[in-house]
Structures are given as structure tokens and as C-alpha cells.
Design brief:
Helix content is 22%, strand content 26%. It is of the alpha+beta class and 99 residues long.
Length: 99
């Protein structure tokens, strides 16, 4: 594959203690799922379950079958451990102080 026939795409995943950013070269028309699988991210983080976790491109929710474009940043989101609205209510009840 020549450089003109490939696109550069970043794949990002983070845990509370570690962040991984991997850049891959893919063919035009590659999907979000293909990019993630090509990156090796699933081997580095076996807890990732693409059937349950959401993915996005530059912070916008995407589907696994969506096509990526040159320069895209594919993000794999972790499940929320707390309801954000409930967490805000609890902080407000404590006077805005974090735990």
C-alpha cells in the first residue's frame, strides 16, 4: 500500500490509571470496528467489550460500522460507574465539595 492509499487514524482508550493512544494506517473506507481491531487495542485491554461499550469519533457517538476518515480519532468509552446526575446532586448536597 502506498501512502496515498492509506489514512492515518488514532484509537484512544483510557482507564483510571492508564491511557493508550495508537495510530494506525488503514485503507480508505475502513470502519470504526476495523480500525479498533487493527490497532491491537483489544489485546492490550481485554476488558473492552465492543458489544457493550460505546465508541465515538472526536467525542461524537459512532457505530462500529461507520466509516472513518483520514485524521480521525476513534475513542472507546468505558461504562459509567456512577450516574452523572446523581453524582452532581450529591456534590451539591455537600456544598460542591468533591470526595
Amino acid at each position: 500500500m502506498s501512502a496515498e492509499q492509506t489514512w492515518r487514524v488514532e484509537i484512544v482508550y483510557a482507564t483510571p490509571v492508564r491511557q493508550e493512544i495508537i495510530e494506525v494506517s488503514v485503507r480508505p473506507g475502513a470502519t470504526v470496528e476495523e480500525v479498533i481491531r487493527t490497532s491491537g487495542m483489544l489485546a492490550k485491554f481485554p476488558e473492552i467489550d465492543l458489544t457493550r461499550q460505546r465508541v465515538g469519533i472526536f467525542g461524537v457517538i459512532a457505530r462500529l460500522q461507520d466509516a472513518v476518515h483520514d485524521g480521525d480519532r476513534v475513542e472507546i468509552y468505558r461504562p459509567l460507574v456512577a450516574d452523572p446526575k446523581e453524582a452532581r446532586r450529591k456534590r451539591a448536597a455537600r456544598g460542591g465539595k468533591k470526595l
